[in-house]
Amino acid sequence: MSEKTSPVVKDTFVNRLLGRVTLSGWLALAAPLLAIVFAALVTGIVLAVTGNPPLETLELMVEYGTQPRTMVLTLNSATLYYISALAVALGFRMNLFNIGVDGQYRVAAIIAAAVGGAGLPLPGWLQALVILAAAMATGALWAAIAGLLKAYRGVSEVVSTIMLNYIATSLVAYLLVNVFGVAVAGSNNIGTKPIPEESRIPGLALIPGTESKVFGLIILAALLGIAFHVLLNRTRFGFDLRTTGLNQEAAVAGGVNVKRMVVIAMVISGGIAGLAGMPQLMGSSYSYSLDFPAGLGFTGIAIALLGRNNPVGIAFAAILWGFLYNSAQILDLHDVPTEIVEIMQGITVLSVVIAYELVHRYRIAAEQRKVSKELAAAPAPEGASK
Q1: CB-based burial of residue 204 (10 Å sphere; 0-12 exposed, 13-18 middle, 19+ buried)?
Q2: pLDDT tens digits, residue range 354-376?
C-alpha cells in the first residue's frame, strides 16, 4: 500500500513546496542575481570604453581570486564585513538607520586593544573574553548615545550617528597619539601595546594549498548570524522589534514601549558593531595602529542592503564584496584601474535596491488584484438590493 501511495504523497509534497513559492517570491530570489548581472554588464561597458578588455579583466580577477591565498583573504575580509553588516541590519529591521557603525567599531577596537595590551593578570582565554566583552560594551555605549537622543529628544539617528562618527574619528586619534600609543619598532607607525600571545585567537587552516589561515573568529561571526536569526524570528523581543519598525502606532497599541525598544535596538546594534574589528585585532594585527582597517561601517551598509537584512543573504553578499576587493589587487599589475571594482559595487547596490523596490510594487499590485477577484467572486449577501 505504501508503494502505491508514495508517488501521490511525493507529488503532493512537491506541489505544496512549489505552491508556497509565489511568482513574487521567485522574483525576490532572482532580483539580486539579475542586479549583479546588470552591474557586470555596465562594468564591462565602462571597461571597454576605457580601453580595457572586459572578458580578459574578469578572467584575470577570477583566476587571481580563486588562488588559495586570495581565498583566505576573501574569507577574512568577509568576516569583518559580515559582522558590520549584521549591526546595520538589526537597526534596519526596526527602521533605524545606524550610520554610526563605523565610529562604534573603531572606538570599540582601540579600547579593546588597550585592555588587551594592559597585561591583565588573567589566564589567556579569560583575557580574550574580557577583550571581546570590552569591545561589545564600548560599541553598545557609543550607540546608546544616539538611541537615547532618538527616544527622548526626537533627534534623527542618521544625524546623530554621522556626528558621532566624526567625534569617534577625533577621539580615536587623540587616544592613539596621547594615551595608548607607543612606537612600532622598525616603522614610523604608532599603535597600542600588543595583545599577549596567549590571548590571541589562532587562525583556522580551512583552505588547502596555502599557509595563510582564516580568522578564528569566523566562528563568532557565524554564531552572531544564528543569534541574529533566533532573536528576530523566534523571540517575543524580536517580534516587538519588527512590529515597532513596521508600525509604531500598532506596536504602542500592543503594549510595546517604543522608546525603550529604540534604545535597546541601538545598544544591541552597537554591541555587534563593537565586534566588527575583533577578528582583525585578535587574529592578525594584535594592536590598534594607524593602519587598522577603516570604513567597515559604510561597507556594512551596502552589504546589509544587498543581503536584504537576512543573515544568510548578508553572508553571500559579504563573500562577494570580499572577493571583489581582494581579486582587484591584481589589476594594478596589469594597468587596469582598481576603481572599476568600486564602480561595480556601487552599481550592484543601486541595482539591487531598484530591483527589490520593483518586486515590492509588484507584490502590492498582485495583492490588490487578488482581493479584487475575491470580492468579485463573493456571493451577494442575502437581502441585498438587486
Answers
A1: middle
A2: 877 777 787 788 788 888 887 78
